């Protein structure tokens, strides 16, 4: 459990930058900089976690159950591997040396040195703190993608419907971590409203082509509260999915495709008190003294997504076992693979 939070909040957010929190010293500028730096990983997490809901337009038989275990990866577009540092967007944070095209957390190495300069109210002295811009983790990943696993239980209902459930009750780690997740989806068959095809003798034929609509909502809450201080990180992630789906369903194989709409929202709060030593210099750059400054609750970030998606996939059915894979075209393309068990 503890490793899960280290991956999300340390490896992902602070990867490759041992003194990442020093940028909190730039006060309000920290929100702008870190938002641009972390945007691709949280958008990728929303796209990846909003996948793998359904693999056929054919509903499960009433009161039958399917258990699906899947892994999805949202591929980071090249445009999200860097971001432009515009000096006019910041009050105190500036580039001291190096390029103004900086890597995001999903980018490569950084070669830029930053400088925080905060003048006092009389503009006679300046608090100065220098630091290296953080690099990304692209070079340490086999594929530049944001992963998201999913475990889902689906129940067939009458009237050509089924319900999908993702649930993790609130779990707490002795070291301060917590997580809980709930997701619900509903699928409804459209094919059932059309008459079944008949053979030349007038007998109803088995239907292989199916059409359905599906809607889903998911919410993840996770974070960390340091038991030995007031520091903490809180993440809330919500996604919504609407899609129409068609599939060709045969005894041992299904081919499926869908077109739909995804929407998501994520908030990330970094809480607590963070203290930093500043060099205080005069307007000519002459050293005067060293001061300590404390910043409280330094970050309140938000990210959203809103866009269309289209996917295609294949599912192999071997008695009670199902193996499936699909690919979704959207802002962050998503590849999904999984297995399912029918009961």
Distance between the termini: 30 Å
Strand content: over 45%
Main β-sheet description: 10 strands, antiparallel, barrel
Return the average pLDDT rounded to an integer. 89
Please provide a written account of the structure.
The radius of gyration is 25 Å and the shape is elongated. The protein has one domain. With 343 residues, the protein is mainly β. The chain has 2 helices and 17 strands. It has a 10-stranded antiparallel barrel. Strands 3-5-6-13-14 form a 5-stranded antiparallel β-sheet, with no helix packed on it. The chain has helices spanning 2-14, 29-49; strands at residues 65-75, 82-84, 93-97, 101-103, 113-119, 125-132, 145-157, 161-172, 177-189, 209-225, 232-249, 253-271, 273-282, 287-296, 299-318, 321-329, 334-342. The two termini are 30 Å apart.
Give a quick precis of the structure:
With 343 residues, the chain is mostly beta strands.
């Amino acid at each position: 459990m503890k490793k899960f939070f280290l991956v999300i909040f340390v490896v992902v957010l602070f990867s490759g930058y041992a003194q990442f929190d020093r940028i909190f010293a730039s006060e309000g500028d920290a929100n702008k900089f870190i938002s641009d730096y972390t945007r691709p990983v949280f958008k990728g997490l929303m796209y990846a976690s909003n996948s793998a809901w359904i693999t056929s337009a054919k509903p499960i038989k009433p009161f039958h159950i399917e258990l699906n275990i899947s892994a999805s990866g949202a591929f980071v577009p090249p445009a999200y591997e860097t971001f432009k540092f515009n000096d006019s967007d910041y009050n105190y944070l500036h580039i001291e040396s190096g390029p103004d095209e900086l890597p995001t957390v999903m980018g490569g190495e950084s070669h830029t040195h930053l400088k925080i300069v905060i003048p006092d109210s009389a503009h006679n002295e300046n608090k100065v703190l220098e630091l290296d811009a953080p690099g990304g983790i692209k070079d340490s990943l086999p594929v530049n993608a944001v992963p998201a696993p999913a475990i889902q239980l689906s129940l067939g209902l009458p009237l050509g419907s089924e319900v999908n459930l993702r649930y993790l009750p609130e779990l707490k780690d002795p070291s301060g971590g917590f997580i809980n997740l709930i997701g619900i989806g509903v699928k409804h068959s459209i094919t059932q409203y059309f008459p079944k095809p008949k053979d030349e003798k007038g007998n109803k034929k088995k239907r292989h082509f199916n059409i359905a609509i599906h809607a889903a909502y998911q919410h993840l809450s996770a974070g960390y509260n340091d038991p030995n201080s007031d520091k903490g990180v809180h993440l809330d992630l919500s996604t919504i999915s609407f899609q129409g789906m068609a599939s060709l369903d045969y005894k041992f194989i299904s081919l499926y495709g869908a077109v739909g709409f995804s929407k998501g929202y994520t908030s990330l709060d970094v809480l607590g008190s963070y203290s930093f030593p500043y060099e205080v210099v005069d307007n000519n750059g002459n050293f005067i003294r060293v001061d300590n400054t404390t910043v409280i609750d330094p970050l309140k970030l938000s990210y959203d997504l809103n866009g269309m998606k289209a996917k295609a996939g294949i599912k192999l059915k071997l008695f009670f076992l199902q193996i499936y894979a699909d690919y979704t075209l959207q802002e962050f393309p998503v590849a999904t693979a999984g297995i399912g068990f029918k009961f």
